[in-house]
């Protein structure tokens, strides 16, 4: 799963796949059906994708990135995360088919990279709003990585459990647990660069 500029054909395939998934599970969607709805030929489909699952993975990646990155701010990140998890919960068959078709390491790298973009925006916004906080680049990167891994850990656990837990309640708890802590971490690294000097 990766990000690149979409062609008109890819967008047509994505729209067609979403329409078909409202009627049937991913395993029952055929290339012929997809081409008919997208009004493209099979050659065009196979130019862009290897098979139906490959197309579904591309659509899934775009949906994940859109939900997260459109809300990449301190005030809205939880809204984006909630929309993402609700989307996955409501499209569980597609999400599971895509995730099961990929090595777990690839799924992890994709989610981590996307969540890191979100957390980078959050941290940089906080630093902009609090110019008195002077944080070393390595400490800034550590804060971004720490909270990226924390959020991804919850998503990974949720996925491993079959997405059974209510996504609204889960995101509410994640948001509540993290509220204020990113800023507090930046304040600590401002006072103690590199984490040095903190009492143990």
Automatic annotation (TrEMBL):
Can you give the residue ranges of the Transcriptional regulator TetR C-terminal Firmicutes type domain?
75-178
User: In which domain of life is the source organism classified?
Assistant: Bacteria
**Pfam families, sorted:** TetR_C_8
This protein's name: HTH-type dhaKLM operon transcriptional activator DhaS
């Amino acid at each position: 799963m990766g990000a690149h500029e979409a062609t008109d054909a890819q967008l047509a395939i994505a729209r067609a796949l979403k329409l078909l998934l409202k009627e049937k599970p991913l395993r029952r969607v055929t290339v012929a059906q997809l081409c008919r709805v997208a009004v493209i030929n099979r050659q065009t489909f196979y130019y862009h994708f290897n098979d139906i699952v490959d197309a579904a993975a591309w659509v899934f990646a775009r949906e994940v990135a859109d939900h997260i990155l459109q809300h990449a701010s301190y005030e809205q990140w939880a809204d984006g995360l909630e929309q993402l998890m609700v989307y996955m919960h409501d499209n569980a068959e597609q999400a599971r088919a895509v995730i099961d078709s990929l090595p777990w390491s690839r799924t992890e790298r994709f989610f981590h990279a996307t969540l890191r973009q979100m957390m980078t925006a959050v941290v940089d916004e906080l630093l902009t709003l609090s110019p008195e906080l002077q944080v070393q680049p390595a400490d800034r990167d550590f804060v971004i990585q720490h909270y990226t891994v924390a959020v991804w850990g919850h998503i990974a656990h949720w996925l491993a459990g079959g997405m059974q837990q209510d996504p609204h309640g889960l995101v509410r708890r994640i948001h509540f647990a993290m509220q204020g802590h990113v800023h507090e971490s930046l304040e600590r690294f401002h006072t103690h660069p590199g984490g040095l000097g903190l009492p143990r």
